[in-house]
Amino acid sequence: MPGYATRQLVCRIGGHDYRLRALLDRQQFADPDGAAERAGISSAQWCLFGQPWPAGRMLAEAMDAIDIAGKRILEVGCGLGLSSLVLQRRGAEVVASDHHPLAGSFLAHNAALNGLAALAYRDLPWAVPDTTLGRFDLIIGSDVLYERGHAALLAQLIARHAKPSAEVVIADPGRGNSAAFARTMAAQGYAWQEQRRRLDEGDIAPFRGRLLHFSREAAGAVALAS
Fold first, then answer.
1. I need a labelling partner for 85 at 20 to 30 A (CA). Which of 12, 52, 116, 225 fits?
2. 3-class SS at 40?
3. Model pTM?
4. Is the model more confident about 203 or about 14?
5. What are the GO MF terms of this UniProt record (predicted)?
């Protein structure tokens, strides 16, 4: 036994059913070798990667419709990997990333559940530069601004890994840190727009969900990477 319980659920995105193995609930915790503790993941945070969050579904729906032709794509904080699975099914060149010690194995399992080839996966702590990862045309993430310091960390990661002409799409449930992130992205030369979207069936306008779309042309690039 792995020390935690799981469940299987189905998310329907763009006419396709995606099967996902998720943690049973938010009470699950197992860190027998201390890998999560060494990664800076507390017992309260441990279960978060393994839940199907509304912002994750919102991002997956956006990825079902976005133009992927010729683009190298990076998902940050992939969790269960739903958006990366949608992109993989569409034939995109996608790299999923997270820093939870179980994210890679859950992603591989979920790809197999859906009859997809194994996805490229990287363990990617945001504060540690990865000189081997390269640069991307599109960087995506869902609910990745849930702590105040995440806006600066994520913007620095994007500076290291975005191509001079690039897009960034972030699905945010309205936690209050998106304005600071948008200011930092503007300093990197990105124009941006916000689209309000329903997070769940109970949402009424103005919707809580925010789909943030940043874009930059090569001439506006600002080198902030270290």
1. 225
2. coil
3. 0.94
4. 14
5. calmodulin-lysine N-methyltransferase activity
The DSSP line for 91-123 is T-EEEEEE-STTHHHHHHHHHHHTTPPPPEEEE
Q: Measure the CA dihedral 225/151/125/117, to 10°.
A: -100
pLDDT 10s digits, 123-166: 999 999 999 999 999 999 999 998 889 999 999 999 999 999 99
Q: Please report where in the chains the tokens 């969050």 appear, as a residue.
A: 53
- For the chain, the structural domain boundaries read 6-29+43-220
Strand partners, 21: 8
Q: What does the pLDDT read at residue 73?
A: 98
Task: Assess whether the previous peptide bond of 206 is cis (omega < 30° from 0).
Answer: yes
Residue 10 has pLDDT above 70, yes or no: yes
Neighbours of 53 (CB within 10 A): 19
